[in-house]
């Protein structure tokens, strides 16, 4: 694991232990069952691709990051969610991690309530308990970062997501992780173009890994997408969706920027 992931995993384990002590498994499951029904995340991406023949956008609500520091000072998750929806996003990704991304669980609920779009809870999952917690918070999809966990835990997270009627985005960074994703058998696979060692982004990673991805998986190119040409480039490499944060978060007019980014 890279230094940044080691650091995040360490504080996540402590945080989850405290959360579990306060809300044990049966209680978090009860909350998950009371949450509003999951919106089909992968189904929405699929529908967009079938109807338009163009890649779908997963638009990220991201205040700050380890690589860039503060990205968006005037941060209003419901307003951003609405701007993304009007601009044509198919799904949202909402950072809930506090220490590294200045995220918050409340941002997920607030953004989701403001729109009709399915929402990914963008956080670092190190315990199956977090899947029920994510559902209780309203998430329609969870993120499984293979660089952070072993295959047994990844399979548990995937099974839990299925049990709660959620989708799971399985994130890969290299050939070895893509091979693990193929064995795991998920149907939504991400390729993250950002190196977790150097934080550099290289869209060539999508080009390299896409040919190794599971055949029935919908492929998402993540990170470092700034222009319509970038969208076209990863689309040419068979990505059917793009996950974009920073480039849209830095715009004054997020709705117009969203429309312009995807107009290729
Ligand atoms: O964004 C970071 O600096 C980062 C650092 C360490 C782990 C994960 C990180 N980002 C998470 C993401 O996957 C991105 O927020 C997402 O793909 C959007 O990327 P971008 O469009 O480049 O903001």
Automatic annotation (TrEMBL):
PANTHER family: INDOLE-3-GLYCEROL-PHOSPHATE SYNTHASE, TRYPTOPHAN BIOSYNTHESIS PROTEIN. CDD domains: IGPS (cd00331). Pathway: Amino-acid biosynthesis; L-tryptophan biosynthesis; L-tryptophan from chorismate: step 4/5. Its EC number is 4.1.1.48. Keywords: Amino-acid biosynthesis, Aromatic amino acid biosynthesis, Decarboxylase, Lyase, Tryptophan biosynthesis. NCBIfam families: PRK00278.1-2, PRK00278.2-4. It catalyses: 1-(2-carboxyphenylamino)-1-deoxy-D-ribulose 5-phosphate + H(+) = (1S,2R)-1-C-(indol-3-yl)glycerol 3-phosphate + CO2 + H2O. This is Indole-3-glycerol phosphate synthase. The keyword Membrane does not apply. Belongs to the TrpC family. The keyword Lyase applies. Residues 5-261 form the Indole-3-glycerol phosphate synthase domain. It comes from Brevundimonas kwangchunensis. PROSITE patterns: IGPS. It comes from the Bacteria.
